[in-house]
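Exercise 7.
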Amino acid sequence: MDPKRLMLLSALARLVCAAALAQAAIAGKLSLFLTYAIMFAATLYLPWRAASSDARFYALDIYAMLGFALLILLCQTPLWATDGQPLGIDKLFHMLSGAGIAWFAFLSLRAERWSKGEAAARLLLAVLAIAALWEAFEWALTALPPPWQLRMHANAIEDTILDIVADVLGAAVALACAAVAGKGAGRQGDF
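Solution. The predicted structure, written as tokens, is:
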């Protein structure tokens, strides 16, 4: 796809995400707003990287922004309730997050000369570390005063473990898809 069109779609996706953030703030969901506002700011690297060197980062930015917007809206519905649902919609989004992180890392590290096994191990460990940091961030939000506080449910420890497993599983699936796509295209150097 044309890089200018990707840039426009990336900007539109950021506007959609900003609108979802504004809606969460207006609805008084301040911990939700805080969480995704930080992630919105942290991902500003993607369009900058796309503009400076690699237009594929626009596609990753679109994926992240539309995913964030969907998550912000879903987190405010009964569909998101995870009590008694250890494999609910939350785990699906953790898998998609792991896949997105692996995609980002794969695009960022393509120039490295690692073996496929070493690259896969590094990417999976990076996703594991980021997932653990995210879960620590969620636990830190529980210490904030209301209305910023994130409330944990009864099975919070099990949920945390399953979230991390889902992130790593999503990354593994993304890496497997990249390997199959690379073989199908006949590329030797790609994952």
